[in-house]
Design brief:
The complex is a heterotrimer. By secondary structure, chain A is mainly α. Chain A is built from 12 helices and 2 strands. Chain B is an all-alpha fold. Chain B is globular. Classes of the chains: A mainly alpha, B mainly alpha, C alpha/beta. Chain C: Keywords: Cell membrane, Lipoprotein, Membrane, Palmitate, Signal. Chain C: InterPro entries: Bact_solute-bd_prot1, SBP, TAT_signal.
Chain lengths: ~300, ~270, ~450
């Protein structure tokens, strides 16, 4: 499979190589990606086609009735707004935290191995279990209110629909806990490839820590960050189990609505219509990121 | 680095560890508490009323051992298959500029944007027709499809960082491309590969919905118990949550070494 | 961990990964305890999902279904529907028996075998005519055999009785008394509500509106959906909600908040209540739902056993159904999992405390003067969930969002009427059997 060998031209870095490309040897590249294309086509294409057909075909031929039904549902627009809000707030926080964690670890603190292990553990926890964990914290008679009680403060209804801001806060904290590890691991894996000499050389020439992060580390991390960003956004669009465990349907999210329509309401047509909205949002986000990053020159040689 | 900076780093690490660790402590505490103590308020924050009762009831359920075997099989199978299919593609993305490269990556990513339920139901139909329904192969295929985008993109980002010169040097000295890849590129890319293997295994381990739709009598562990747990009393849900986390912890403990091996022996 | 140990365990890891496909060579290991091999019967059900209930039912299957080897396959409702549908439509059915609620089986009427012969062979069981009528799913042949039934009642911790308004009998509450009671209790409890309803994502609170509140106030469910009585009912609900625990919107069942003491009075499905008094039945009461101006509206929950068309081992499947309707099996299910017999099986006097409480409440509710029985809808098929959702939407918009009742009912009535207009089916009880069923 690898016989074609790496004789093609190097790509100067990033998902989208800037500037003119020199043509590689397409057959080699094609040979390497062919299995994945075949695989994904076999497992995704048919469901996708079936899905699109389902969203726009009723018993009496093509119809937009399902799309209208979706738009008329009182939960749909709430869900769209919440999904967008969650992503806009969560993703920057998550990346800031993951970067900070990776940089902390790069300072070789004491017990680094232990810290690292605990930081990646949430990776192993399913969203259902994560929802449970944080439910036990935030619920009315949960651990957080128990701590408040020990401190002499009264309990607070964190997850009540009457307190939408703490409800949102709880979802953000839980998602931050659950999914930051993933970004962290990608960043750490990427940091492995940044030679310490660069960093140390910059330090010798008097660069401050902040300057070194900004001008040495971050540019080197760009490919990893780009992958993490797109992937994380798409996965964040997919996540709903935590929000559902914490808030029921008080904080509806789009994918949660898909499941709601599919299972509770047994209307796969509307469910697929919502799924296509999620897909469209993902496309917009992914293309947006790629455009944004293409604007900056790559730093790889 | 100054002493003050060092202290700040230590404090920062401890703060993050607390944020990540305390919820883990709480679920372990809840899983091992007696049912009666979970109904009290305020909840005890220290392990004062430990009881293995809920945990043992949970572990006695039918199919726990079978589910465990299936989950491990499917998880490792998914890691193997997604690496076999994904590594070459990741390498191609990192090393070649070819037409359709960008749409290919985008398409890969977007497959993850489809909710699993929308995928699984038509797949169940196909698997019924092809005899893959209710086998661990079928679930492995679905999980590989879910994991492939991560595998390909993470490994390609890692391959990008591996020095091309060394690889070319190896070939100049007579190594075949495959040998150069195995001897020069692979060791350097190991952290990334470990990261993606970690994602893959954990994804497969935790995926419930597709597995429940594609199997009937040969469930994976989460599909066997997690759905059941959703309607069970809270105490059992905690017990089940903890029981599902433990094996994944072992896996991460094994794989994290490869992620860190570039930092040599300083990390313990 | 040193650098040197790396390659060795790396090899071990690779070996492990390579071995995985070999391990899975048989396509997986059975997880239902029967091997799933030839001759064994797969019973798929969305009932008995709590882990202990499931374990107890598995034991009942072992003890009472002696002739056949049954693999009990407990799944979520959504998985139940999609599995049944996919297998039937692909023509490769792997399930021999499907056990679920009337409403879960109804969408699949065309995918189920006719069971008239089985029903005829079970004449000694004494099924109520009402139930066997429902089991036709709107057609002319029997599509499932009644399996077990249940209803919804109120569970009351005796501590709450101190706030009961004078003159009120807790066994014969009216909705007004319930409101006065919950209001007084809340005030006495430091402003914290003591009443809860299961309004979580998986909660069954729509049944409260469909089968209890609305029939009690309006005498109907669908035809009277937007009439003046319905406005009164929802105005009442708004007041009751003001005295209801806010956390209700996260309750999927009431037994846990009751057990934790978060609430003291709760309305829910009997099987989702019995856990609360299980430990100390003497501290608890279970009482019939309140009655309103038109009577005591209550809803029947019915579960049935069906055989999908093209199922493997249909003869054995029928034996399993016969075995599960014997008096012994019926009473075992009542005793252990609190679902009531559908046959004439005599209820023994030595039921566990919590089940005895539930049994008495359900009986009192059924026999109350002015009882208005609501049946599960017939003929809604796959739209059953959507119709239920309309009642949930009313609750959300009226009680949670505080929108005007009249406006919400008119908007939701249009939605309901649109669905009914597409289906053209007769009304079901308590609405008069007009054809086709529409919102007046």
């Amino acid at each position: 499979m690898l016989a074609a060998g790496p004789r093609g031209q190097p790509v100067p870095g990033g998902l989208m190589p800037p500037g003119a490309r020199r043509r590689g040897r397409p057959p080699a590249a094609l040979l390497l990606i062919a299995p994945s294309i075949v695989f994904m086509a076999a497992l995704f294409l048919w469901p996708l086609v079936a899905g699109v057909t389902q969203a726009f075909t009723g018993p009496g031929g093509p119809t937009t009735a399902y799309v209208r039904r979706m738009a008329d549902d009182p939960y749909f627009w709430d869900a769209t707004r919440n999904t967008a809000l969650l992503i806009v707030v969560l993703i920057p926080l998550q990346f800031a935290l993951a970067l900070a964690m990776a940089l902390l670890l790069r300072q070789r603190p004491r017990f680094a191995g232990l810290h690292f292990y605990i930081w990646v553990v949430p990776l192993a926890i399913s969203d259902l279990a994560a929802g449970l964990v944080w439910l036990s914290v935030f619920t009315d008679r949960g651990y957080l209110n128990s701590v408040l009680d020990h401190l002499g403060a009264g309990p607070y209804a964190w997850l009540s629909f009457e307190n939408p801001s703490t409800m949102f806060l709880a979802v953000v904290v839980a998602e931050l806990w659950r999914a930051t590890s993933m970004v962290f691991v990608i960043v750490v894996a990427g940091l492995q490839n940044v030679p310490r000499d660069y960093d140390e050389a910059a330090a010798v020439f008097g660069a401050t820590y902040r300057q070194r992060v900004r001008h040495v580390l971050l540019p080197q991390l760009r490919p990893s960050l780009q992958v993490a960003l797109i992937l994380r956004t798409i996965l964040a669009l997919e996540a709903f189990a935590v929000a559902q465990a914490l808030t029921g349907r008080n904080f509806p999210l789009l994918v949660g609505e898909t499941y709601q329509w599919y299972y509770q309401l047994q209307n796969p047509n509307v469910a697929t219509a919502i799924a296509l909205v999620v897909l469209a949002l993902s496309i917009v986000a992914a293309v947006g990121y790629l455009r944004l990053m293409r604007g900056q020159p790559g730093m790889h040689g | 680095m100054s002493r003050r900076g060092g202290l700040l780093v230590q404090l920062g690490c401890i703060a993050v560890t607390l944020f990540m660790g305390v919820p883990l402590y709480l679920i372990a505490l809840a899983a091992l508490s007696s049912r009666e103590s979970l109904n009290r308020f305020p909840l005890p924050l220290l392990p004062t009323s430990l009881s293995g009762e809920t945990m043992s009831t949970f572990l006695r359920s039918t199919g726990i051992v079978g589910g465990l075997i299936n989950s491990v099989t499917v998880g490792l199978g998914t890691v193997a298959l997604s690496l076999a299919v994904g590594l070459p593609a990741g390498y191609a993305l990192a090393r070649y500029a070819f037409r359709g490269r960008d749409p290919y990556q985008l398409a890969l990513l977007l497959t993850r944007a489809l909710p699993i339920v929308v995928l699984s139901v038509p797949l169940a139909r196909i698997f019924l027709d092809t005899g893959l329904y209710d086998t661990s192969y079928g679930v492995t295929l679905l999980h590989t499809a879910l994991a492939l985008p991560t595998t390909i993109l993470i490994t390609s980002a890692i391959f990008l960082g591996v020095s091309r010169e060394q690889e070319e040097a190896a070939m100049i000295f007579g190594a075949s491309p495959l040998r150069a890849f195995v001897r020069v590129v692979l060791p350097q890319a190991l952290p990334g590969i470990a990261a993606s293997a970690m994602f893959t295994f954990v994804l497969s381990w935790n995926e419930v919905l597709g597995a429940s739709i594609l199997t009937l009598n040969r469930r994976t562990l989460p599909a066997q118990v997690l759905a059941t747990l959703a309607d069970s009393p809270l105490a059992f849900r905690f017990a089940g949550g903890l029981a599902l986390v433990l094996p994944a912890l072992v896996f991460i403990a094994v794989v994290r070494r490869y992620l860190l091996n570039m930092w040599g022996t300083t990390l313990r | 961990m040193t650098h040197r140990s790396g390659p060795i365990s790396r090899r071990a890891l690779l070996a492990g990964i390579a071995a995985a496909p070999v391990l899975g060579a048989c396509g997986g290991v059975s997880t239902t305890g029967s091997g799933g091999g030839a001759g064994s019967i797969t019973l798929m059900s969305n009932q008995f999902s709590p882990v202990e209930e499931k374990q107890r039912f598995e034991r009942i299957l072992q003890e009472r279904v002696t002739g056949e080897k049954v693999a009990f396959n407990q799944v979520e409702t959504g998985i139940f529907a999609s599995t049944l549908q996919t297998q039937a439509d692909a023509g490769k059915v792997r399930i021999s028996v499907a056990g679920a609620l009337h409403g879960d089986l109804a969408p699949h009427a065309s995918r189920l075998t006719d069971l008239d012969d089985v029903l005829a062979s079970l004449s000694d069981r004494g099924f109520a005519e009402e139930l066997t009528g429902l089991a036709k799913l709107g057609g002319s042949t029997t599509k499932y055999i009644p399996w077990m039934q249940a209803s919804y009642v109120l569970a009351v911790h005796k501590k709450a009785l101190q706030w009961l308004p004078p003159g009120a009998d807790v066994q014969r509450l009216t909705y007004d008394q319930l409101l006065t009671w919950t209001t007084a209790a809340r005030q006495a409890n430091g402003g914290k509500p003591v009443f809860g309803i299961p309004a979580g994502v998986k909660g069954l609170y729509h049944r409260f509106f469909q089968g209890f509140l609305l029939p009690s106030f309006t005498g109907g469910q669908i035809t009277t959906f937007r009439g003046p009585d319905a406005v009164t009912a929802w105005e009442y609900m708004k007041q009751l909600w003001a005295q209801t625990a806010r956390a209700s919107t996260t309750y999927d069942n009431l037994q846990e908040p009751l057990q934790r003491g978060e609430v003291l009075i709760g309305f829910d499905h009997v099987a989702r209540l019995v856990g609360a008094p299980a430990g100390r039945p003497d501290d608890w009461l279970m009482v019939p739902a309140p009655s309103g101006p038109k009577g005591l509206g209550y809803m029947l929950v019915l579960a049935g056993l069906a055989i999908p068309a093209g199922a493997p081992e249909p003869a054995k499947a029928k034996n399993v159904i016969r075995a599960l309707t014997t008096p012994e099996a019926q009473i075992d299910v009542l005793r252990q999992n609190a679902f009531f017999p559908v046959t004439n099986a005599a209820v023994p006097g030595d039921l566990p405390g919590a089940v005895a409480l539930a049994e008495a409440a359900v009986k009192a509710q059924r026999e109350a003067p002015g009882a208005i029985l609501s049946l599960p809808p017939v003929g809604l098929g796959a739209r059953d969930g959507e119709v239920g959702q309309i009642f949930k939407n009313c609750f959300k918009e009226i009680c949670l969002d505080g929108r005007p009742v009249r406006q919400v009912l008119d908007a939701q009535a249009r939605e309901l009427d649109r669905i009914l207009g597409e289906l053209r089916i007769p009304c079901w009880r308590p609405d008069p059997a007009g054809n086709p069923c529409r919102v007046a």
